[in-house]
């Protein structure tokens, strides 16, 4: 299945400067999060009870998972 994220209706986001779009199926959901490059993350940690993947499609992305810090960039895996 191909997902045209531009055709998906944007949903509200918990973070200023970010927009979310969802694609769901019977056993999976995929969330696209677009963040304005000038947006500042508030630093509040949060948890998810399920596995998650992060894919950087443009620009750098820094994230912490448990006690590990990851620096991602477009097309590069940690």
TrEMBL record:
Q: Which InterPro entries match?
A: RmlC-like_jellyroll, RmlC_Cupin_sf
Q: Which organism is it from?
A: Streptomyces enissocaesilis
The superkingdom of the source organism is Bacteria
Task: Output this protein's name.
Answer: Cupin domain-containing protein
SUPFAM superfamilies documented for this protein: RmlC-like cupins
